[in-house]
Specification:
The complex is a heterodimer of chains A (408) and B (173). Chain A has 408 residues and is mainly α. Chain A has 3 domains: 1-83 and 157-230, no CATH class; 85-153, no CATH class; 235-389, Rhodanese-like domain (Oxidized Rhodanese, domain 1), CATH 3.40.250.10. Chain A has helices at 15-33, 38-46, 51-72, 88-105, 109-117, 121-139, 141-149, 158-162, 166-192, 196-200, 206-221, 235-244, 251-260, 274-279, 299-302, 317-328, 340-350, 362-379, and strands spanning 86-87, 152-154, 248-249, 266-270, 286-287, 308-312, 334-337. In chain A, helix 3 packs parallel to helix 11 and helix 5 packs across helix 6. Chain B is mainly alpha-helical and 173 residues long. Chain B folds into 2 domains: 10-98, no CATH class; 101-173, no CATH class. Chain B has 10 helices and no strands. In chain B, helix 8 packs across helix 9. The longest helix of chain B has 21 residues, at 109-129. Classes of the chains: A mainly alpha (408), B mainly alpha (173).
Chain lengths: 408, 173
């Protein structure tokens, strides 16, 4: 199901609109949390106010566990989320320079925007400084390039880097965060000499803390996700559909669709290797090799309701494998050419047409006429010109827009 | 001091809500949050307006003109417009609007502004190396468990703690 825009549930043109809406929430929460105040922010380094640590870590563990739970439920396809790539030295150098910026300026970019817009003059100076800093990077880009682009490790995960299980890492992260909350509260009280009555009037965080631990433990002990995605079909349904053999389409039906062209639109999908496809195939067929059948670029082609889709290979073995894959991924109404190309050739080209009986019934008569017509049709090469009338697959992929590199 | 801080939202509640905003961002658009990217777009657009040919030929700036609708019609720019509107709304609701220089008691406003400018400069520069700032790389990166997110977060805060002693005059009583 999610992410909604890359999966096509929401028109990508609305992307920028949603950016604005999400920004509203982001700005509102940052301001409400007190992030427009540089002295509150800097407090994290001196122990008199740990609001940064609390907000930051609570958001991180909420989002980390939440995203994994959504992914577990099959509501979010984690594999297409944008994972920021790791350039090790650049990340460290950048982080150290940003550390200087934080302690000197008392803001980070997001919080400075929040401060500036409600009238903090120091935040406005910070924002101006930020423009200058980015400009300096641009001017000296060539000398920075080797650090900037060096040690590119790709979009790697921290649990891979540490060599531990993902869900175990999340549990440890949650426990570390909760411990940090406890300890920093003690430090804060000591530094500020908080009176006892204020300390005791604080709400108890036992319930929210237990809930987040529970969520992390749940992720750890649950077996691997029953469904990889929202649309996935379960095994029993697929087996019963296979047993009913309703996913087959007969050579005659395929021949009929080729002969009728756009009056009976069908998309024939050759799942054999590209070499075989080039050598020969059915008129109007397109080639999607078996191993690419679930590639996202073909999704809209295979799911287009304007035509029927029939998969074929030499026999029906590979086509049926392709059908299984697509069915498992939740695609519906895709057919398999029964017996594959071999059966098609035998049926349409080579079969003997029964001579018409003296008093044939209506169906027999029509069948015999159709068979004869089909045989001649294909033998005469009439099918070839139908190629241009075959439905042209509409290929539309919604890519996640890559963030401006170096932006954040 | 204590009275004032109670007018802010509970930090854990704010963090939880921020986490939900982050999840919503990923759920709808497949990507997280960011704040310094928009500043970069502004810088690039400005350079391109002042010196278009230079921007087209420069490796750092030209990247943003090669493809797409240009640096300003960008996800992060619209996100940032939202941040500004949301923060203004929040500040207005809670009666926190007003021009003011916030500083430690031991320094003058001029000193504070010079250091704010320098801090912004460092952060702007660092965010380029880090491919994002505290929200874009550290927070968003930690939410999806990326190595870059954790490394950047530790580098930012680690450096802050190492330097805290030397800059204490800026902030402490």
């Amino acid at each position: 199901m999610g992410p909604l825009i890359p999966h096509g549930f929401i028109n990508p043109d609305l992307n920028l609109f949603f950016a604005f809406i999400i920004g509203l929430g982001f700005g509102y929460v940052l301001e409400q949390a007190g992030f427009s105040s540089s002295r509150k922010l800097a407090g994290v380094f001196y122990g008199y106010d740990f609001v940064v640590l609390r907000v930051f870590f609570t958001a991180a563990i909420t989002a980390a566990t939440g995203l994994l739970l959504l992914s577990y439920l099959g509501w979010l396809d984690y594999s297409i989320l944008y994972i920021n790539p790791t350039f090790l030295w650049s990340a460290i150098v950048g982080g150290v320079i940003m550390g200087f910026g934080f302690i000197m300026g008392g803001f980070c970019p997001g919080t400075s925007l929040v401060g500036a817009v409600i009238g903090k003059i120091d935040a406005m100076f910070f924002v101006i400084g930020m423009f200058i800093g980015i400009f300096i990077f641009g001017q000296f880009y060539e000398s920075f390039e080797s650090i900037y682009l060096g040690y590119g490790l790709g979009p790697i995960f921290v649990y891979e880097s540490l060599g531990i299980d993902r869900d175990l890492f999340v549990l440890i992260l949650v426990l570390v965060a909760l411990t940090a909350f406890y300890i920093t509260q003690r430090i804060e009280d000591k530094v500020n000499d908080t009176p006892i009555n204020v300390r005791e009037s604080r709400p108890s965080y036992a319930i929210p803390a237990s809930l987040i631990i529970l969520a992390a433990v749940l992720l750890l002990v649950l077996p691997s996700s029953p469904r990889n995605s929202w649309d996935e079909t379960d095994a029993e349904t697929i087996l019963s559909e296979m047993a009913a053999r309703k996913h087959y389409t007969s050579p005659d039906e395929v021949a009929f669709s080729i002969m009728q062209g756009k009056d009976y639109p069908a998309l024939l999908v050759d799942v054999r290797a590209p070499e075989d496809f080039k050598y020969f195939t059915l008129p109007g067929a397109i080639n999607i090799p078996l191993n690419q059948i679930l590639n996202r670029r073909w999704e809209s082609t295979l799911l287009n309701p304007e035509y029927k889709v029939a998969l074929f290979s030499y026999s029906d073995t590979h086509a049926e494998e392709a059908w299984l894959l697509t069915r498992r991924a939740g695609y519906k109404d895709i057919k398999v050419l029964e017996g594959g190309l071999n059966n098609f050739l035998h049926t349409v080209f080579l079969r003997d047409i029964e001579p018409e009986r003296k008093r044939p019934d209506c169906i027999e008569m029509h069948t015999a006429r159709f068979q004869k017509e089909a045989k001649e049709y294909f033998k005469m090469g009439k099918a070839i010109k139908k190629v241009e009338k075959a439905p042209t697959p509409v290929i539309k992929i919604v890519e996640i827009e890559k963030p401006v590199s170096g932006g954040c | 001091m204590e009275n004032k801080s109670t007018s802010y939202m509970n930090s854990y509640l704010a963090g939880f809500l921020l986490g939900l905003v982050l999840i919503a961002a990923f759920f709808v658009t497949g990507r997280g949050l960011g704040a310094s990217g928009a500043a970069k777009s502004v810088v690039i657009s400005s350079v391109a307006t002042v010196a278009p040919e230079y921007a087209q030929s420069h490796p750092f700036y030209a990247e943003f003109f090669r493809e797409g609708p240009g640096p300003m019609k960008n996800w992060l720019v619209y996100l940032t417009l939202g941040v500004l509107a949301g923060a203004f709304f929040s500040g207005a609701m809670s009666g926190r609007l007003g021009l003011k220089v916030e500083k430690g008691p031991r320094i003058s406003s001029a000193t504070r502004l010079v250091f704010a400018l320098l801090g912004g400069l460092m952060f702007g520069l660092g965010a380029q190396f880090g491919r994002g700032c505290t929200s874009g790389t550290a927070l968003t990166g930690m939410a999806v468990l990326s190595t870059a997110g954790f490394v950047t977060m530790m580098a930012i805060f680690g450096t802050g703690y190492v330097l805290a002693y030397f800059f204490r005059k800026l902030w402490l009583k």
